[in-house]
Amino acid sequence: MQPSSCDTFVALPPSTEGHRVIFGKNADRPCDEVQEVVYFPAKDYSAGEKVECTYIEVDQVPHTYAVVLSKPAWMWGAEMGANEHQVCIGNEAVWGRESADDDEALLGMDLLRLGLERADKAEKAVNVIAELLEKYGQGGACMEDQCGFTYHNSFLITDRKEAWLLETSGKYWAAERVKGGYRNISNQYSITTKIDKEHPGMREYARSKGWWNGKSQFNFATVYSFTTTARIEAAGSRYYDGKKLLERSSGHITAETMMDILRDKDSGINMEGMFLSAGSMVSVIPTNPDLPGVHYFTATPDPERSVFKPFIFVKHAHQLKLTTSPCYGPNDPVKKKPRFQSKPDRRHELFIKHEVVAAAIDSYKDKGKKITDGMRQLEKKSLTEMEEILSNGIDQPDFLVDLFPSCVQKEVDFYSKNFK
C-alpha cells in the first residue's frame, strides 16, 4: 500500500503568539475506521504487572501519567495525544529501505501511548520509545483487516520547552531536537545530518547493508529512505505544503492557525478518499509552567466539517463517554486468532450523530453552510473561553472536570436541533 497519511506539526516561540507551543495533527486512516477520544487517569501498579497492548504484553511501570488520546477504536495505542505534564506526541507511518515487519510486536501507536504514559518531558519520551523499540520491536498489521499493511514510525514530540523528532527503521532510530521555530513531518524520513540522539548501532548497520560507505557525512534520510522517491511523492508534496503554511504565519501562529492548516484540502493535509482525516488534534501549551495546556480534539472525520473541543487536565476529570467506542472485551475480533475475522460496529455516539450531519453538508448547499457556520460558532465560543484560562490560569479546577464531555454534548444537541 502506498503512503497515504498523516501530517503532524509543531510551532514554538518565536514562531507563535503569546509564548506558547502549538501542536497539531491529522490522523489519516482508512475511511471506515472510527477514531475515539478517551481519557485515562494516572495510576499506580504493583511490581511484575504487565500491560496488554494491541498484540503483545510488555512490562508495566510503577506509575503511569494521566493521558488523553485520539485513537483508532480497535487498537490499544493512539495516533496522537497528550499527558498531564503537557507532553504531546503524534506519529507518522514511514517506509524505507528496511522492510516493515509483519510479525506482531508493538505498533507505533502503542509506542506513542506508552511514551505519553511514562514520560514527563519530550526528551524522556524519546528515550522511553527507543528503549521499548529495542526491547520489543515494532510490527504487526496497522489496519483492522488482513491486508498486511505495515510500516515503520516517526514521532513528533513536544513539551513546554522544546520538540523532538524521532524516526525509526526496524529497531534502529535517530532523533533531532527542535528548540524554536516550527517543524512538520509527513510520511517520509526528514532527519538529515543534525542527529542529537541515535541507536548506537544505527550507522554500522547501514554500512553493513551497503547503504552508507562509512566515510561520507551521514544523512539519516538519505541513507534509510528508498533509493527512489516515487513511493513517497505524495507525502513529499504534503510535507512541503505544510511547511509553507507554517512559514506563512510564522511569528503569529495560534491555535486557529493550526486548525486552518489541518483543514486545508488543497494541500491534501485534510485528506479525502479511501484514506481520510479520521480525527484531528490541536494543543496549546504555554511555556509558563503555572498555566495549563489546552488540548482540542474533533473525535470525528474531516476537520473542515468537525468541531474542535477543549480538554484540560484537572484532578477528577470525568470519562469521555460520548466519544468512547463500544468495548467487546475478549470477544473482540482483534483479540481472537486468527485476527480480523469480522468488524464490529465501533461507532461512538458523537460519531453516529456526526455521520448524518456530514452527509447533509455534502447534499444540501444552503443547509450545509448553515450547519457549518453553527459548528464554527460553537468552536469559536470554546476558543474564547479557553483564552482566558490560557492567559490567567485556573481558579476553580472542579468546574473543568466535565469540560470536554460538556462541549461534546453541546455539539450533539446542536446536531439534534438541526435534524429533528
Automatic annotation (TrEMBL):
One of its GO terms (molecular function) is dipeptidase activity. InterPro entries: Peptidase_C69. This is Secernin 3. One of its GO terms (biological process) is proteolysis. It comes from the Eukaryota. Belongs to the peptidase C69 family. Secernin subfamily.
